[in-house]
Design goal:
Layout: E1 2-6, E2 22-23, E3 41-46, E4 49-54, E5 69-72, E6 77-82, E7 91-101, E8 111-116, E9 167-171, E10 180-185, H1 187-194, E11 201-205, E12 210-214, E13 217-221, E14 226-229, E15 239-247, E16 257-261, E17 270-275, E18 285-294, E19 297-300, E20 315-320, E21 330-339, E22 348-353, E23 379-380, E24 383-389, E25 393-394, E26 401-402, E27 416-417, E28 422-429, E29 431-441, E30 443-452, E31 459-470, E32 473-481, E33 486-488, E34 501-510, E35 517-527, E36 530-544, E37 552-557, H2 565-576, E38 580-583, E39 597-598, E40 603-604, H3 606-617, E41 633-635, H4 646-649, H5 662-681, E42 688-692, H6 719-736, E43 744-751, E44 767-771, H7 775-788, E45 792-797, H8 807-818, E46 823-826, E47 845-848, E48 851-854, H9 856-877, H10 882-890, E49 898-900, E50 909-911, H11 917-934, E51 955-956, E52 973-974
Parallel strand pairs: 1-16, 12-52, 28-36, 37-38, 37-46, 41-42, 42-43, 43-44, 44-45, 45-46
Antiparallel strand pairs: 2-51, 3-15, 4-6, 5-14, 6-11, 7-10, 7-15, 8-9, 8-11, 12-13, 16-17, 17-20, 18-19, 18-21, 21-22, 23-24, 24-29, 25-26, 27-28, 29-34, 30-33, 30-35, 31-32, 31-34, 35-36, 39-40, 47-48, 49-50
Amino acid sequence: MRIRVCRGVPGVLACILAVGCLVGCAAPAAVAEPSWPPRGRPLRIKIARDTWVSSAGSEREGNNGGAAKLKLKGRMEYTLFDADLSVLKGKIVTAALWHFHTASPADPLRRVTVSTVAAPWVEGTASRYARQEGAACFAQAELGKRDWAYPGSTFMDAAYGRGRTIWRFAESTAPDADGWQSCAVDADVVAARAAGLSHGFAAQDDVGSEWSYKDGQFKYMLMPNRFIHSREQPQFAPYLQVWTAGTDQVPPAMVTAVRVETGDLPAGEALVTWRTPADRGGGKTLGFHVSYEAGGKRGQVPRYLIPMAGEPGREVRMHLQDLPFEPGESVKLSIAPVDSAGNVGKSLAVTFRVSAKPPVFKIAPAELKPFPPSEKLPEVGGLKVAVVDLVDKIHAETGKMVPAHPAGYKGGNHIWSAARKLIRLQSARNEAVCFQVNLAGKSAAADVKLAFDAAAGVKTRVYRLDCVKTRAGIMPDVCVPLTGTFAVPFQDDPEAAGATNVSLLCEVYVPHAAAAGRKAGRLTVASGGESVEISVELTVWDFTLPNKLSFIPEMNCYGTAGPTKAGMEYYRAAHEHRLCLNRLYYHWRGDVDYPPKWTGQSLDLSEWDKLFAPLLDGSAFADLPRKGEPVDVFYLPFNEHWPMDVYANYRPSYWADEAFTDAYVKGLQKAFADMAAHCDKRGWHDTIFEFFLNGKVYNKRGGWKRASSPWVFDEPSTTQDFWALRWYGLLFHQAVAPVQGKARMWYRCDVSRTQFGRNLLWGVMDMEVLGGANAQKMRMKRDEQVLSGRSYFSPYGSANDPAGANTQAVVWCLKTWSEGAVGLVPWQTIGNAGNMSSGSRTGLFIPHAGGVAPSVRVKAFRRGQQDVEYLTLLGDVYEQPPYAVAAGARHMVNLAGKILKTFEADAGTIRFDAADPGALWLLRASAAAMVSAKRPAYKRCVRPIPLPPKDLRRLPDIGYVRAAPKLPPSKPEYAPPAPAD
């Protein structure tokens, strides 16, 4: 027996390459060929309990244990069943069929997944989704008493790969003359239940939504209801047919080597790793029982934390969490292997200490205090002068503030004292800081100037905030450079005609070379022949923000920006604001704007290079503050229809691995490889190149070629969609891995329904852009990162409406970072000329006579990015993990948010009603003071985002049932479109 405890490792996530029940990876185009008939003789076993659960609305808490039917409906409704499998003890299971009687002949079951279940559950006796205390439902294994896994988990955390479960799928037979169907269940899934490694069976309809194309008409059927009869109908009761061949009475060998890592895991946690021992009794080592002793107490590690076994010698990992361990406490684990016949091997006992990392890194409040409020404002030439934070907003007509503040805020707040005529700012080097000047009243000719002595070495700009119409009235939003004098209200801003005040934005940029210390400046406001001078006190902290972003606010867009002189201005505007514009250059039809040349055999990138090299080598930004930094992320032009013709190569199937010609597979892989090799040769190693699929099959409504995708790729919905994404991802990685060198070729997927994605994309997807980021999704992502290897995520949604608080952008950045994301993605950011007058969530960069006019929300996103860099630097210089720094930040700022959606698939807009500009300022100042005290040397990047390692030979053991009758795959009804379509 060996045990090795690793406490000083730089990070658990950084040392993990792959994990779990892992097997070799065949070419993604290969279709698994199941074996049949199985060895041995069959046993008929009746179903002892069954129910179904629903993920929809109030049905989440409903039970159907007494229903006469069971329902399977894509990702919405699932069937649970169980059987007494004690008769299988000591036997070697070779195959199984689940027999069921359809109760919806027009919509029978087609491809079905059957999974193990990681938690005990109570069948219940209710029907029609009635709430039944103590009974199983989607929300809890026992309503009101016990969760499926960790607190806040759902059924999706205890089946289909989550909760360390195993699953496989198979086609169902068509209903026979009496309405009976059958579907193969993987032998391991059955054996796991018999061996006490599972608590039953979970079944899911994998096809989910269907479509057809006949007579020139496309029809989409959203997740039809599929019913089968339950055990409550004796004449139609489902049953299992299980084949066994021989016996196994020999337990597996003892686990002999354990490694424990604590690294940067939170207090009370550990990552425990061991290798699967061999089984010599004729079966296979299938799983483990694990118990613990700590603090004088004993307990069982819950099944949802315990890995299933891998092949003999393969490593498995167990993330100890959710257990009552104190920081640094000594824990004794007992690990016993279990084989497929239910034999339990000898236990290995290991003792170690769990992580002692403090869960919170305390951020000492800065000594700076806000100025006292005052309702007495300086006046000049008929104008009252107020100064507020960048993220404050003053209604142009009413003067009311968003967010609201107590009386006197306009005259005294965290940056401004009207009584002292003093503005107080703080900045790191390589940072831009802003404040707003509000002028209330009327003036025929006003002027505002901001200046520092040349010796200060800073740069200043003043913008007027032009107004836009919003649901809350007229609001300042668009940043237009101020040139010369102006009238109050603005005469050339039609929306401001009824304004009683105007807002201006003053910006100070502190270059790399600026010296730390205090700088003196002046804000001069003139009107009606009078002027008032306000002192500006700028403290430059003794550290420099990195040029390369550690956190990427990705400004997503679908047009306008491009490799033209006018289009490049959008990229430059984003870059200047420490953001990254990323345009998708193809459309739902599959056609590509500015594509490389595809010869039919290879890519010719010579002309493409001329267009896009300035973005990828950084030369497009040579005169900007972060000069020479290339774009952080860049969409590749590939999709399901380019460069290979999807229509000519598609063979109708719901399953991507059965749907395409060999020529299609080879062509795509050649194009992928050519691009990867080229980017490496050009030395474009800093940009993340994203292969991303955006199509949706239901966009074919109205015409077959209106959309090229046969699946829902963007916001995938059902197993067929996730399986197709997996197939394309494998295709991509197999092609680029041998040739990419240092080029960062990533596979990205945009997923709103992470909880329904199983482990289908584990080890394949590098970047998940997820919608509706809630606690469950964050937990699922963290489990994936710890158990499957490094991968990244960024949440997406919409920027705040111009009527709402601009604190949203800052807090969204902070919250997202605090949850472990590497960025965030407003889904659309380029507006149109109409957004100069009519505000929009998506109008962040607006075409203007002077080029590109940014919304003040762009400035707020920059502020959020800079604040994240502060916290990242804080963790770096004090050697603290991000989660501890994030916890310290949450003690100072309320980061709780509420996701607002307009429809079910909407990623939503996150609203932070409790956000406060003063609290954000204090967090920023406090973190800066602590960093500045350490005087850290400049780093080009504080938190690198390295390429996730890939080993396609070590992926989750998922897919087809190995022993199953060979049946035709589920296919849509399809007739080739007419040539003119």
